[in-house]
Every structure is written in structure tokens, then in C-alpha cells.
Input
Amino acid sequence: MPGFFQRYFLRHLGLKVISLLLAIGLWVVVARDPIAEVEIKVPIEFHNLPENLEIDSASFTEAQVRVRGPERLIHRLESGDVRAEIDLSSIHPGERTFDLTSHQIRLPQDLEVVQIVPGQFHLSFDSRMTRSVEVHPRVIGTFARGIRVAQLTADPPSIMITGPKRRVEAVEAATTDPVDATGAMTRSSFVTQAYVPDPLIQVVHPTPIRVTVIMEHAGEEKKTE
Output
């Protein structure tokens, strides 16, 4: 019997004691680290959108993600540590509803997703289109009595825009930021920018726009022979 005890219980006793102490230490650490939860606002990242497509939705969804884990990890958690990723590689033009589950959430090890709001979101997709549109100058100001704006020119007279096809096709013209021509009597030039109000349309290679304002006397009339 003593031989049996020595053979199976005392063999490698030092390693067994160390293992026992490590197990006890780990249990103590876990027992002293209570579980906590935190809610984080996470922007949804879109990956692998086909080259010829655009997202045709005016507002992009953010997710409220509730995360649970050891309190020490929750206290160190930053918003950039949690990400929501959606793969768009198989998308075609049209509307699509996406389920947002824990499979799309990337977060540090030892943490788990408890809740995601919203659980679904809806997006529209359209082909990308690029075309040229005219630039329409916009002028404001107070002028001397009898003086009025006779002509407005923009240089360059047009810009290239790109975005979802249906939105690009709906744009009639780009508009400049208003230039204040107060006090102008004959001819004045101003440098400004052109824009398209639709937030999903971008100006290709934005460049300053020179607006030239030509004034005339209100009573002037062109004589014809």
C-alpha cells in the first residue's frame, strides 16, 4: 500500500503542487472579477462592394451593441475595439435587407455580444454613373439704385459628378456658394465652390469656380436697327 501511494500520489509532487496553486490562483482571479455589460454605438462597416455599384441610401445605419464580459476588460474597452462588418460582395442593383447578428460583430476575446439594435437594416444599391452638369452661379448683395446684374458666368462652366445612377440623372445643375457682389458697378469676379445638394453625389476632382458678375444700368436698352 505505501508503494502504491508513493507511486501514484508522490510522483512528480512538485509539479502537482504548482498546478494546484495555479488553478487556485486562476479561480481567485476569476472569482474577484465580476461580469459587467456595456453598450457601445458602432458604425457598420461595408466591405467588398462591387466596383460598379453605389449605396443608394441617404442614411447609413449605426448599431447599438451590448457587450458582456469580465469587468476588467469592459473597463478597458474602447469604441474602436468593437466593429460591425457587412460583406457586400454578392450585391446587385436593387433593395436588400440585412440581418445583423453576432457573426458580423468583431470584438476582443473573452467578451460576448448580448444584444444588437437594430437586428436588421435595409439598403438600396444602384449602378455608378458619372456625367457633366452645368454650374449655375448664385449672387447676393445690395446694389446702387439703377444698377442690376446683367450677366453671370462661371469658369469652369461645368463639373463632373458621380454617384448612384438615378440620383445623378436627377441633377439638373450644380450651384455655387453665394457670392456677395454688394457695391459692384461694372464687372467683378469672385472665387467660390460648386456643390450638389444630394449627399450621395460627389464632385469629381473639385476645383474652385470663378464667378464673373457683369452689371448694367437698369434703364439701358439695346437699340436695334
